[in-house]
Structure formats: C-alpha cells, structure tokens
Amino acid sequence: MNRVTKATLGTTLVSVLVSAMLVVSPSEASGKQVVIWCDNARVAIIRMWATSNASTLGTIKVVGQDNVKSSLKTVRGIDAPDIIIGAHDWIGALKADGKIQPVVLPPAAKFDAKVKAAFQISGRQYGVPMQTENVALFRNTKLVPNAPKTFADLEKVALKLKKKRASDRNFIPFAVPQGTGGDAYHMYPLFSGLGGYFFGGNSLKWKTNDVGVANSTFIKNSTVIDRWYKEGLIKASVSADIALNSFTGGNAPFYITGPWNLGKIRSSGVSYAITPIPTIVKGIKPVPLIGVQGAMLTSWSTSHGVGISSKKVLAALAGKDAQLFISNLMLRTPANLQALSQFARPGATEFQQAGLGGVPMPAMTAMNAVWASVGTAWVKATSGASKAAPAFKSAAVVVQKAVK
Fold first, then answer.
1. Cβ-contact 272, 206 below 8 angstroms
2. Percent of the chain with pLDDT over 70
3. 339-388, pLDDT tens digit by residue?
4. How far apart are CA 293 and CA 57, in angstroms?
5. CATH homologous superfamily of 6-132+291-354
6. Which sequence spans correspond to the domains of the chain?
C-alpha cells in the first residue's frame, strides 16, 4: 500500500501552506475532522486512503453520496462537506452558486496544462485534478479476434455478424449508448472522427465564437451517419442499459464505454480488448472527451474551522503517492504527471492510450445547450427522423444562441 509520508508531505506542502501553518485557529487545534463527499463508487477507496494517512493529515470523514452535486443545494451548513470529489465540469455552476472557493496547487505537483486548466475559471484554480477518464472501444475478441484497422473494417465486420445473426433480436452490431435523450458524450469519438467539435480552442482558452457543431468538414462527412442508420449499424434506440447488457451478454461485437463499466464487463466473463476508436475519415483522428475528476474546496470549510486542514488534505491529494494509490484501485489514469509516469494498470492503461489527444469537456454553462441539442441531433439522425446535416445545423443554432 502506498503511503503519503511526512517527508513527502513536507516537500509537497511547504510552499503552499507554510504561512498558513504558522497560525492555527483554536477550532483547528481542537481536532475537528475534515469531511469529504464523493460518489459511492469511490467512497471505500477514498476512506482507505484517508485512514492510511490519518497520522499525517488527521481524522478525515469520507461520506458517500448518490449525487454529490445536487445534494449541495439542500444540505444544511452544519452537515455540509469541506471537500468534494467530482467532475471538473461542475465548477461553473458551483462557483456561480458560491459553493466552492479557489485553491492553490502545490508547485511540486505537476500536471498537463490542459488537465490543470480544466479546473480553472478566468485563470483561477477551483479544483485539484486527480484522475482523467474517457471512453474507448471494447471489442468482443471471441466474435472479432483482430482489431479493425479502420472504421470501415469495423463496419464491415459488424454488419457481416448482423446478417449472420439476423434472427437474433438481442444482437446489436455496434453498441453505442443513446436512448431517447441522446448521448453527445458517448457519441463524441464518432463526432470528432467526422470533423465535428463543440468549440474552437481548448481548455486553456475556449473560443465560444467558434462553434464547430455543424462546421463544413463535419457536414460534408455527415452522410456517413445517414449510411450508418440505413445499414442498421447505429440506432438511437440503444440505451445505456441495452448497450451494456448486449456486450456483457455476448450479443455485441463492439461497444463504446468508459472504465466505470469495466468491473461489470470483467465479471460477465466475456472476452474483450480495449482499443482507440479507429479512423473514420482519412486524416482525422477520432478522439473522446476527457473528464477530469478532482477535489474541490467548499465554501463551508472555513466556517467549519477546518480551512487549513482541508487545504492540507487537498495538497496531499494532488501528490504522486495519493494519486497512484487511488488510481490503481479505481482503474483511472492519475492526473499527476509523476504518478502517471509510474502508472501501469491493465485496463486503465488501455483507456489512457485511447484518450490521447482527447478534448477536456468545457466547464461552462453553455454546455447544457450543447449536451441537449447535439444529443437530440444524434437521435434524429439515427432514428430516421431527419438526415444528419439538417439535424446538426439546427443543433449548431441552439449552441450559438447559448453562448451569445
């Protein structure tokens, strides 16, 4: 088990906390515990880390929540967390509601500039990046022994199997989650592979005047989507549950999902491999959206009298040892570059490779319009309600209005 030692913490924290630690408030000296909220999928792991570092960081209470973000709206101040762990694209709404406050990253903890910027608003840091995650292509190696070199190869194999199993109503040639509301997140590698993008720029500086939802390259390639629907390769009726069950049941040769479903896939016994989405259009690399999970300092930490202690915990979570410990158990890629250089976990490493060149999800309120409109465009185009080009042109208009 990796431990965050006193020596490591001393090196990591000194430049950030030295002035703060010179004066300790009576409330902090009294031994009040820092409270962390995280989702139930990671609560046991964060508790293990907190317990193993209690001698250095003090008592940390880790609470699992079904929905951390929404629970912050109704929690009483006395019961509120001091630190929350969640997705980077929460910060826009949480800052607007006054739920989180800026943090300072330890200089010794190095991060990729775009990953670090994912937790920034107007240049200020509102979270400690801990892990990155993205979707990739799962392949049933029993049905498809060799990885397709191009998307055309994938399409050919999937449709051949579809024809072979025409009488099997449970068979899905390409399990990409959508459902009635659409799913612009899981569809993004296909979107980017056809030349689509949400906004120009990157997480260091998004160009909201450059909406790429219906750019000329994507519209030119969008007839491919019409073909996918006509052939029966991709259909909007495939929900998240249907996609997962079809793959784990051996009824789908290909599936797009993230590490959050890896445990279920492994326990199903299906033979699988994880690879990047292959090239759809020559010269354009399909890339997924990148989610950055991290720790945020709430506005309640100061009123609880644990502001200094909470910052100490955050600094530790930014470090190599903490991120290796948590990432190895969570099967997620650590954000800390020193941890990343030592990270080699089967399953998670393949996701890391599939995420190379990926786009961090923009953390702006306009994303509500993006998710809804682009998801709807995919549903229309893969349900027969509309051709792809007009569906995505309509979505672009909605997004453009949202950023004005």
1. no
2. 92
3. 999 998 888 889 989 999 999 999 888 899 999 999 999 999 999 999 99
4. 21
5. Periplasmic binding protein-like II (3.40.190.10)
6. 6-132+291-354, 136-287+365-402
The answer for residues whose C-beta is within 8 angstroms of residue 315's C-beta and 6 or more apart is 9, 12, 13, 16, 17, 106, 109, 128
Q: By CB neighbour count within 10 A (0-12 exposed, 13-18 middle, 19+ buried), where does 21 fall?
A: middle
Chain-centroid distance of CA 259 in Å reads: 10
User: Element (H or E) spanning 115, and its range?
Assistant: helix 113-117
Q: At what angle do helices 223-231 and 367-381 cross, to 10 degrees?
A: 50
Give the tens place of pLDDT for each residue, 21-45.
Answer: 333 433 354 468 999 999 999 999 9
Q: Which CATH superfamily is domain 136-287+365-402 in?
A: Periplasmic binding protein-like II (3.40.190.10)
**How many Å is the Cα radius of gyration of the chain?**
22
pTM: 0.86
Alpha helices for 165-261 (secondary structure H)? 188-193, 216-221, 223-231, 240-248
Which amino acid is present at 143?
A: L
